[in-house]
Amino acid sequence: MPQPIRLKDHEKDARVVRKRVLVGALFILLMTAVLMLRMYYLQVVQYEHHSTLSESNRVHVQPIPPNRGLIYDRNGVIIADNRPSFSLTLTRERAGDWPAVLDTIVEVLALGSDERALFEKRVRQGRRPFEPVPVLFELSEEQIARIAINQFRLPGVEVAAQLVRHYPQAEHFAHSVGYVGRINEQEMEKLDKVAYSGTHHIGKTGLERFYEEHLHGEVGYQEVETNARGRVLRVLKRTDPLPGKDLHLTLDVKLQEAAEQALAGRRGAVVAIQPATGEVLAMVSQPSFDPNPFVTGIGFKAYAELRDSIDRPLYNRVLRGLYPPGSTIKPMVAVAGLDAGVVTPQTRVFDPGFYQLPNHSHKYRNWNRSGDGWVDMELAIARSNDTYFYSLAHKMGVDRMHDYMTRFGLGQRVALDMYEETGGLMPSRDWKRERYRQPWYPGETLILGIGQGYMQTTPLQLAQATVLMATRGKWIRPHLAKRIGDEPVLNTNPPPDLVLRDPKYWEYGIQGMESVLHGPRGTARKVGDSAVYRIAGKSGTAQVVAIKQGEKYDRNKVAERHRDHALFVAFAPADNPQIAVSVMVENGESGSGVAAPVVKQVMDAWLLDESGQLKAEFRTPQSGEEAQP
Amino acid sequence: MNSNFDRTLSNEDLLRRRASLLQRLHIDGLLLLILLVIASGSLFILYSASGKNVDMVIKQASSFGIGLVGMFVIAQFEPRFMARLVPLAYLVGVALLVAVDVMGYNAMGATRWINIPGVIRFQPSEFMKIIMPATIAWYLARHNLPPRFKHIVISLVMILVPFVLILLQPDLGTSLLVLTSGAFVVFMAGLQWRWIMGAAAALVPVAVAMWFFVLREYQKQRVLTFLNPESDPLGSGWNIIQSKAAIGSGGIWGKGWLLGTQSHLDFLPESHTDFIIAVLAEEFGLVGVCLLLLLYMLLLARCLVITVQAQTLFAKLLAGALSMTFFVYVFVNIGMVSGLLPVVGVPLPLISYGGTSLITLLAGFGILMSVHTHRKWMTQA
């Protein structure tokens, strides 16, 4: 230590600090007094001023709704867009006696008491204070003018422009794309109130509902200064909303229209799928309806008309229509029989026109009462021989049948992104015990083999089962969305691929399907003859009314609405599957005669070029040579 | 008679023993009581200010719990022992500040954090709020009071280095608070009044220089807004106008707990952090504010008593500076929210939401408890 040591004077130090603490204490007292005075000034002297300022705070935060994502078909044709529309809004807080204001609106626009009641209901649904609630949509020029003239009598009433969903394709995509509608009270409870604070519409059905979170976008905000009447004077701060993502579909507008034309005004369903990708190319349920009125709120009468129509236009036959698949599943049953080892491709069955279980007298009829004689697998599929499949089903038993058909997607929800798809029913021993508390009868297995009985399937499931034939068991869930924004839709959660013991088994099933259209005794050979490419398909009929034992189906005795539904499933070209189609024609009676031509028309629209030749991209080296005139 | 006398004695004995139990645990009962009252009150205000966010309240309560544990731990160390660690802590603190300036974590456009992902994340500037006065106290306590010119200059250098480093982050509010905490030690040490006056006079040119060379655009904006909030009522003056409206509309008795319209309708920004006093003022009125100020005064009174009764010079200077700094937090925050001072981003001590500042504050009170409970010849005091 070079420094000299200083003696510490503790007494002096303590004195110095004590003095300074005293000064500090005085400082604290003084400054606290300043704070208290300041608070007194603000809270007592200026109380009135701040109180009113706080009461009528002139700055409001307004949500800005995001623009809903657009929906395009696979070629970029618009299916759903947003159009400006003028609506009449009412702000309760500014209207004062708002029921009286509603009366004035009704009087000015010369409306009736029904509208008055609707307006009142809508106003009551308003959520936040100072929220302008839309009461009337799609104002005409004349209505806007009338409101303008009478504005002085209508406090709190404004004409507001907003973007509203519009479906330029009208009824073409009502069953696949669905529609948006006004958010109702139930939905309101489940919604994220902040995210939807500026939004009045939400996806109600179809893709609009399924992809709601992607289509909706993110809400924006603006802080606005308003005058005493609540009119916005200026925007102070704005956070832009994030528009929803556009949806690019797998559907093709042209094919959709072609499929509708192919149905030619009959009631029914058409689904077309690209087997390699699982992309749904067309999805038709006829009759359909125009979704546009639902967006702004369809009138009660118009809705009742749609709802109560005997043709059931609101009914989505593709996703929710349940039909026994009939003979359309025979190729799948045949393939299952091969894989289960109960038959070989060469196994032959003699058909006298019926099948009898051993030791039973009941005759299970072939559709052809006179019988087809000896039939092997290919002929059985081509002729749609019931006797062969009774025999096959009997050998397989219900349990194995249930397992195989389930793996084909029958009685299952198969779609990736379709709202409200019905699963249908693939019966089993367990199911019957649970449902009816009854044992399974052998006869029920037999009719299962020809797609009758308890079995219930949708046209979409039949299309998917056909796709599985075409792809030899490769599972991709059928889907309607190709891309969400820039993100491709992934094949999430597909069921396990259907792998057979020997992949050749597929070919026997497909062979039979080709014979249906191209074989000499095929049930749909008329349709096959007119095709420039080879089709593999299968017809079917779904009974609407059960026929009693020993009774014959007589079309003249059956009322039109009780006639059988005609079914046909197929894919083409048979050696290079590009499209799989499933068609159901309500009360069409004949799968081969009525549904098959529809299938072919849809296939032609997809596969043929303008000159009626197979498009180059769908041709394989062989298919060009094999094409028959 | 005899037995009665015995019982009286034993009662006294019991009281003494209880007091000595707290002493042995190095806890100052009075300080702890006031802290608990303020902190539990703060949870009610936070519940309202956060829009009834229970998670936030629980988080704050647990921060308070952690802070209390930290306070107890710190109180176990003798001030003498702390004094030995101070120079090293100061150097570490400065090194961390340099590290933050160089490569720190970017939060809210300002770099204030040391962040080792998964290990620790904290603000060295917060740490400096305690190290700063401790260092100056350690330095000045080595010499006789009042400090001589040389010692003052060296103290100032030791204060200015972290001050500048924090200012560069940039964090004007904290840098000024660190500066203040160091300056209070010099003041407590008996800095001559003529130099204090001289420094005040020199402040004007320094302020002008800072305006042009140091302050960032948003900081200038804050000062300008402070000078004339009405000029931009809905841009940068928004906070002050809204908080004044919140406070003023509370009146004498307030609107009632959870009934403050300004804060609950989202007119008041940052209502749970820096502007929480506005929520208190709106919901509990002038009475509530005065009650809180009274609690703060009680707390400070106890702190100053501890300062005067401290035995070593280091302990006296440190305790005095910590107490005065605490009051500065209170004054700056309330002054800023009520429109007396510019908005500098200082939380209201013990009330505002935020774990870091709460833990730092309680660490400071831990030091005060240590100072008070480690005295020798205690029975004479």
Topology:
The complex is a heterodimer of chains A (629) and B (381).
Chain A lengths: L9 H36 L1 H9 L3 E6 L6 E2 L5 E13 L1 H4 L2 H11 L4 H12 L8 E4 L4 H9 L7 E10 L13 E3 L2 H6 L10 E3 L2 H5 L1 H5 L3 E7 L5 E8 L7 E3 L3 H11 L4 E7 L4 E8 L5 H5 L3 H9 L8 H4 L9 H11 L8 E3 L2 E2 L8 E2 L7 E3 L1 H7 L2 H22 L21 H8 L5 H8 L9 H12 L10 E4 L2 E2 L15 H15 L6 H5 L6 E7 L22 E8 L6 E7 L5 H17 L13 H6 L3
Helix pairs in contact in A: 4-5, 10-22, 14-16, 14-20, 15-20, 16-18
Chain B lengths: L1 H23 L4 H21 L4 H22 L3 H25 L1 E3 L2 E7 L3 E3 L1 H17 L8 H19 L4 H17 L4 H21 L3 H11 L10 H13 L10 H4 L11 H34 L3 H25 L17 H19 L8
Antiparallel strand pairs in B: 1-2, 2-3
Explain how this protein is built.
Chain A is α+β, with helices and mostly antiparallel strands and 629 residues long. Chain A contains 23 helices and 21 strands. Mean pLDDT of chain A is 86; it is low at 623-629. In chain A, a hairpin with a 5-residue loop joins strand 8 and strand 9. In chain A, strands 2, 3, 4, 5, 10, 17 and 18 form a seven-stranded mixed β-sheet that branches. A five-stranded antiparallel β-sheet of chain A has the order 12-11-21-20-19, sandwiched between helices. A three-stranded antiparallel β-sheet of chain A has the order 1-8-9, with no helix packed on it. Chain B has a three-stranded antiparallel β-sheet. Chain B folds into two domains: 29-76 and 217-381, no CATH class; 77-215, no CATH class. Chain B contains 14 helices and three strands. Chain B has helices at 2-24, 29-49, 54-75, 79-103, 124-140, 149-167, 172-188, 193-213, 217-227, 238-250, 261-264, 276-309, 313-337, 355-373; strands spanning 105-107, 110-116, 120-122. Chain B has 381 residues and is mainly alpha-helical. Classes of the chains: A alpha+beta (629), B mainly alpha (381). The interface between A and B is large, with 44 and 50 residues. Chain B: Keywords: Cell inner membrane, Cell membrane, Cell shape, Cell wall biogenesis/degradation, Glycosyltransferase, Membrane, Peptidoglycan synthesis, Transferase, Transmembrane, Transmembrane helix. Chain B: Pathway: Cell wall biogenesis; peptidoglycan biosynthesis. Chain B: It is an enzyme of class 2 (transferase). Chain B: It is a multi-pass membrane protein.
